[in-house]
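ok here's DNA glycosylase:
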Amino acid sequence: SCIPFPPLSAPSFGLIQEKVAHNAFWLVVAVMLLNKTRGTVAIPTFQSLIEVYPTPVEMAHANIDELAAMIKPLGLHNNRAKILINLAVTWIKEPPEKGRRHKTPNYPKPGAGAGKNIKPGEVLQDDDTDGRQGAFEIGHLPGCGAYALDSWRIFCRDRLRGLHNREAVDETFQPEWQRVVPKDKELRAYLRWRWLREGFVWDPLTGEKEVASMKIMQQAEYG
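and the structure:
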């Protein structure tokens, strides 16, 4: 990770996703800009976008040339501008909703058959009533690849489904972030930190965990 590993008592790890978790649209935009781009370049650009296009409506009506010029330092600016506008248009027409999951081929596990038993355009109900894998509430949005899906699941999905406070009252409930095994190094670092806060050492390659020793917990807290 490019971010120094913070103490376990820190209020946050330091990812931009944590700061915009309350607004799923901006989280998706942020990770699209961060994809294959250094955070030192992408995050200032993202903050400028929020000021100029504060809602999906403004983004949907953006002048594509002006938008492309704003994100030019990130590279692939013309293509990214088109995707951002299409994302905003789709979000307005069909925002993510609880109980409406859209096909996500080859996700969460590429080549593992995820989504193969879901018809094109089919909308699935929530996981509790339709257990088919390979579908999530933002699967229909343009530009949402594995990094966006992982980020959204970790930081936003339980909030959309009204489950973000359930962990405090139901010990058997497994939060969505605990189900994610991302490939992105920053998300892996974040989850290692967050699992340690729960008292576990988490393997970012397998998703398996084991109880952390006192020594590891002390190292994590005091560096």
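+1. The CA atoms of residues 3 and 14 lie 7 Å apart.
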